[in-house]
């Protein structure tokens, strides 16, 4: 009899494991619908889920609590969420300045939202949270690519130097044709590229100053590749010849 009891227990355990796997598959299907291809699921267990973002440089650990009353997720009782913790694994000493800036903006966004656990008290809210985070990660990642592009190809647009400090980007332009050398400092935030960028100008040579830069910037619409388009526009409108 003992053997048959053990067999029955084993079967129950197996059935339970099978159920868990089914739940996991169903959860993954739902999460995939929200996939911005910006997160990767590293672990999903009874205790927690772990997600990686941005080439494994940002990790989100979601710790599960008991089932949530009267709420369902993937056709099973939804789990409550005890905590959502974000951690950075970027090596700031080794990483290029553009990657450090991207990381700062992402964590600026994560902090700006206050308590993630309050916004995401159960599994039911997790896909939306992942979507919101992915949206910002995606925009910041594109910004990083723009900065790399400008560092590599800036000379084509009379961009002498790109300097990144904290969340500011300093662009030094120099053109002998326009007899001008000046510096434009842009203040970036996690809203990039959906809002106009605050800026300041310092003139070294010539007469291109705040008024001229403001006129150019006001003509550049916000949106995809905003920073690159600002540089193209300054080059096109101010640096082609004498003013």
From TrEMBL:
Domain Knl1 C-terminal RWD: 10-144
GO cellular component: nucleus
Name of this chain's protein: KNL1 protein
PANTHER family: KINETOCHORE SCAFFOLD 1
The organism's place on the tree of life at top rank: Eukaryota
One Pfam match: Knl1_RWD_C
Annotated CDD domains: DRWD-C_Knl1, DRWD-N_Knl1
GO BP, sorted A to Z: attachment of spindle microtubules to kinetochore; protein localization to kinetochore
């Amino acid at each position: 009899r003992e053997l048959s009891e053990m067999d029955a227990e084993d079967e129950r355990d197996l059935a339970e494991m099978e159920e868990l796997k089914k739940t996991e598959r169903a959860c993954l299907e739902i999460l995939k619908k929200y996939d911005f291809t910006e997160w990767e699921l590293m672990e999903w267990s009874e205790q927690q889920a772990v997600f990686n973002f941005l080439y494994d440089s940002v990790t989100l650990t979601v710790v599960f609590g008991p089932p949530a009353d009267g709420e369902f997720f993937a056709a099973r009782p939804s789990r409550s969420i005890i905590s959502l913790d974000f951690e950075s694994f970027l090596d700031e000493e080794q990483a290029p300045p553009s990657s450090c800036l991207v990381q700062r903006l992402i964590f600026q966004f994560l902090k700006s939202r206050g308590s993630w656990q309050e916004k995401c008290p159960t599994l039911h809210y997790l896909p939306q949270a992942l979507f919101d985070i992915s949206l910002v990660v995606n925009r910041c990642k594109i910004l990083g690519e723009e900065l790399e592009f400008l560092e590599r190809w800036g000379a084509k647009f009379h961009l002498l130097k790109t300097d990144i400090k904290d969340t500011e980007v300093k662009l030094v332009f120099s053109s002998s044709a326009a007899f001008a050398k000046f510096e434009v400092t842009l203040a970036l935030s996690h809203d990039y590229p959906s809002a106009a960028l605050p800026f300041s100008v310092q003139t070294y040579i010539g007469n291109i100053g705040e008024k001229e830069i403001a006129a150019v910037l006001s003509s550049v619409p916000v949106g995809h590749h905003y920073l690159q388009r600002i540089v193209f526009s300054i080059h096109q409108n101010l640096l082609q010849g004498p003013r």
